[in-house]
Amino acid sequence: MRNSDRLPPRELPKRRSGRHRNPLSFDNWFGTPALIMAVPGRAEAAKCADGESIGARMADLVRAYRPEVTIRYGHTEGDEQPLVEALRGLERSDDRPLSGVVVPLVTAPHTRVSAAIEAAVAQTGADARVTEGLGPHPMLAEVLHLRLAEAGYVRADRMRLISVVARDTTMADGVVVGAVGGEGAVGAAGVTAVLLAARLGLTVLPADLENEAAVEQMVDQLRQGGCQRPVIAPSALGPELPREELEALAARFGARLGDPLGSDSLLGKIAALRYAEVLNSLGVEQPPTVEELPAPVGSRHRPEA
Length: 305
Hints:
Elements: E1 34-39, H1 54-65, E2 71-75, H2 83-86, E3 100-104, H3 111-124, E4 128-130, H4 138-150, E5 174-179, H5 183-200, E6 203-208, H6 212-224, E7 230-234, H7 243-252, E8 256-257, H8 265-281
């Protein structure tokens, strides 16, 4: 089982061009716009288990992939370390086509977070582009698997054979992937649920954690399929919903609660990839033209006489 608390090895940007170019690399001449991470909720709620800020830890994780980029973070609510402060000084400049890239630290489309980001960008006049959230993405299923394994609810390694028989009475035999953010978030959680089910060999269903009836329906569906030990796994970093509310929700339906995703090196890599997607969309990575491609060689490509 991978230790999520260790920073990933530093990956320096490669300068290769073409279809096999490293998606995390880009050209220095572009001007390296700042990377701003929008942390949902208030600063006092955005804490890891050890009390450290999720935003600060995610900044360190992303910096391992982007050591040459200015990385900041701000919270979408409250007066402590607000997002508007992180967006200060990002006015439009003639020296570069973009001053900043905002990456929302949410795992799916989130209506309130998106509105807060748009308001902060408009208030500061920042020349910034907002990316998609961290999901849906295949690596989210891996992080969820890790959190469930750390709690002892599932096997740490991927199952090689499909089996819904738990090894002991502490392990889950069904999982509800909890979404936060609205209807779009439930759709993204459905993608993660399919990928997580393939990893675990268990029945995994998505549900809106902000809709008690939806959670009840999914838990009942698991029980009708023979599930005795359901677990609710929040597909969220943590500050989106209070822990107390989630614990009460799980207890109400006789389910156990997994830990939120928190900060993780895989999430940091997704954030770095979102940043790279914006750069590539602005023309940083140009595909080679026909004239730039090397001429074919060999008997089949001999020039005509």
